[in-house]
Amino acid sequence: MVYETVIINIPEILQKVGLRPGQTVADLGTGREGRFALSAGKVVGEYGKVWAIDIAKDLLPSIETKAAMLGITNVHTLWSDLEMVGASKNTIPDDSIDLAIVATVLYQSKKKKQIMEEAVRMTKSGGKIVVVDWKKIETPFGPPMTERVDPEDVKTIASGLGLLLLEEFEAGEYHYGLIFQK
Question: What is the pLDDT, as a whole number, of residue 6?
Fold first, then answer.
C-alpha cells in the first residue's frame, strides 16, 4: 500500500479563499507540478481562467500536458519574470484577476516586494492574494532556515502595498498561509 503525505492541502486552501466557478486566477511561480494552477482550474470551471506563471520556461510544457491529461482546458501557461513589476502586463492586465496565488515562491527571491507588487498589480479591487510559504521551523526537508520568510515580514510588505490581512492560517505542518484583500 502506498501512503502519500499531504504537505499542503491545496483544495482546502482554495476553498478557504472562496474560489468560485467563473473566476480568474494567477498562480505566480507555478513550479514544475503546477498543483495550485491545476486545482484552481478544476474549481473555476469552463467559464474561469487560470494563468500558470513561471520564469523557468522549460517547466511550462509539462503543466500544459498535465492539464490536457486531466481534461482541464482553462489553464494557460505564461513565461514571465515575477520580480519585474508589469512584465506580464501585455497578457495579464492591471486589475484583471480575482485571486493571485504566491505559494512557496517568496523564499526563493531577494525581491519579495516586487513579487507582491506584481500580484497586487494584476488583482482586482476586492480580489484576494494568498501567500503560502515555509514556516521558520526545523523540518526534515525544504529550504534552509536562512532562506525562509517570516510571515511578519510578508505582512509588513503587504501592508505597505495597501493590502488588508483577512486571515492567517496553518497551510500544513510545514507551511503558513496568509490571505490578503486588495
Answer: 60
